[in-house]
Specification:
- By secondary structure, the protein is mainly β.
- The protein has a single domain, classed as Methylamine Dehydrogenase, Chain H, CATH 2.130.10.
- Helix content is 5%, strand content 41%.
- It has 4 helices and 35 strands.
- The strands form 9 sheets. Strands 2, 30, 31, 32, 33 and 34 form a 6-stranded antiparallel beta sheet that branches. A 5-stranded antiparallel beta sheet has the order 1-7-6-3-35, with no helix packed on it. It has a 4-stranded antiparallel beta sheet with strand order 8-9-10-11, with no helix packed on it.
- Bound molecules: cobalt (II) ion.
- Cobalt (II) ion binds next to strand 22.
């Protein structure tokens, strides 16, 4: 048993107890329908009208067996609808084939990509290379469907009101059954006159193919595919996220290798077979958008800054440059076969830092600067500035200023002045991805709210916190009657 951070000698920050943090990891016991939520502090703004959708792991354990990594937990969707200053919550597990089967049997029947094994040891796990589509990474709206996304396989369609699972979707034949479909679409706010969703799928091996797709998100063609292209790049690809500008889709290909043997032999999950190759050059793969001015032109490859990237904040074009803001880790953080994720020592895992990379696409040069050294994740700009230069970013950060720690605070950065604002839930609160929701009456870029789910380790349940996006002053705390484990991504749909 490792010492909790509180007792750890090698750190100056004593702002959390690891057991408080780990207490969020529990099975979601109840599925609620349109349950009215209590406001414990403040007031819900009356002009906040819409629905917050969040996805994340909801099943942590079956028959006494814990999943090996939270990313292996079955997707559970939370929807909180805001209307006339009141909030109503619905939550449902995504009825994937595997979840239904495992509910029936009461045991894990599939291996997880991040190391969860079936009961029964070597003989039960070796040579079982089936992928369990757990639909747990993001939830977005496309046409009449809500889509629960998991990047290695196809999307599950859900009813946006009831969260009932309609089934695995091919998006009206756009995708092959269970074709890889990213969990990180980007919503172009209207670079070419109308909004659209830009997304991708990756097939990887010695050569990797990126399929880049654009879908209509309003008008007569809503939900339909507008453009589709495929580009091949040499080398194995691990691409979780990407960024867009009006003319480009930008991918950062981490220098990473994949050795599938331990996976095939049942010793490791597929993602545990990834290892970073810090000595090798990461690449930027930059693909013209078919809606942009370089339609049909070839993709470009550039050298990328060192480090491992899961998530980008935003990108934009500035003269000959593409500017890309991303969260960099010194190495790929993995949880080995013998480790328990609830006992991780944050001090031993690299922290994410926000950096800006300027890529000159005409003379093939690049320069990088650190925007913020403080550990952060899940950053975003005002949604109407995706792909454009923004003045502000909002993100989740650790309470500690140096090194790694759990996400306990929300930070707003003014990129023009470097000024930072912070709202903290420490020491007893822990949080995930914040969403910046712009006010429908907005006069400036930062008019709106930041909405985030906070694990309240005193109450042992989840609070929904609304902050003023401009000031980060608390607007309202709303109590959920259940605990929701730390989730992954989500979206806001205004009504
Ligand atoms: Co992500």
């Amino acid at each position: 048993m490792q010492a909790s951070r509180k007792d750890s000698a090698n750190t100056a920050q004593k702002d959390f107890d690891r057991e408080d943090w780990a207490s969020a990891y529990q099975n979601v016991q109840f599925e609620l329908t349109n349950q009215s939520l209590q406001v414990s502090k403040g007031v819900i703004p009356s002009d906040l009208c819409g629905t917050l959708y969040r996805n994340g792991p909801g099943q942590m354990e079956r028959d006494g067996q814990w999943i090996h990594h939270p990313f292996d937990g079955d997707g559970m969707i939370v929807a909180v609808n805001f209307k006339n200053g009141k909030a109503f919550m619905t939550n449902r597990f995504v009825r994937t084939k595997a979840w239904e089967e495992e509910q029936q049997s009461g045991k894990f029947l599939y291996r997880g990509v991040f190391g969860t094994q079936k009961p029964g040891g070597f003989f039960a796990n070796a040579f079982d290379i089936r992928l369990k589509n757990i639909a747990n990474t993001n939830v977005i709206r496309l046409g009449n469907d809500l889509l629960a996304l998991w990047e290695a396989a196809g999307p599950h369609a859900l009813d946006p009101c009831t969260l009932e699972t309609r089934g695995l979707s091919t998006l009206n034949g756009v995708l092959e059954k269970e074709e890889a479909f990213s969990a990180h679409p980007r919503f172009d706010p209207g670079h070419h006159g109308y909004p659209m969703m830009v997304t991708f799928g990756v097939k990887t091996g010695p050569t990797s193919t990126i399929r880049l797709m654009e879908f209509a998100t309003q008008g007569e063609k809503i939900g339909q595919l507008l453009s589709d292209r495929k580009d091949n790049f040499s080398g194995f690809a691990f691409l979780h996220d990407f960024a867009i500008t009006p003319n480009w889709a930008v991918f950062l290909q981490n220098s990473i290798s994949f050795n599938p043997i331990p996976f095939i032999l049942g010793k490791k999950g597929a993602a545990q077979c990834l290892s970073s190759k810090p000595s090798e050059q990461s690449k930027l793969w930059i693909i013209p958008r078919e809606s942009g001015q370089f339609k049909g032109k070839e993709a470009k490859t550039f050298n990328a800054p060192p480090g491992f990237v899961f998530h980008h904040l935003n990108a934009w074009e500035e003269g000959e440059e593409i500017v890309l803001d991303s969260i960099y880790y010194a190495d790929f953080p993995s949880i080995g076969p013998e480790q328990d994720f609830r006992l991780i020592n944050f001090d031993l895992i690299p922290e994410g830092q926000l950096k800006r990379c300027r890529i000159n696409i005409s003379n093939n040069t690049m320069r990088t600067e650190v925007i913020s050294k403080q550990c952060c994740e899940f950053a975003m700009v005002n949604p109407s500035l995706v792909g454009m230069k923004a003045s502000y970013g909002w993100m989740a950060t650790s309470e500690c200023k140096q090194g790694n720690g759990p996400l306990q605070a929300i930070k707003k950065i003014d990129f023009n002045t470097g000024k930072e604002l912070l709202w903290s839930a420490a020491p007893k609160g822990f949080l995930g991805e914040p969403l910046m929701v712009k006010s429908q009456l907005a006069k400036s870029e930062d008019d709106g709210w930041v909405i985030v789910l906070v694990w309240n380790s005193v109450r042992r349940a989840t609070d929904l916190v609304i902050l003023n996006a401009k000031t980060l002053i608390l607007q309202a705390t709303i109590e959920m009657p259940i605990g929701v484990p730390y989730g992954l991504h989500g979206s806001w749909i205004k009504s």
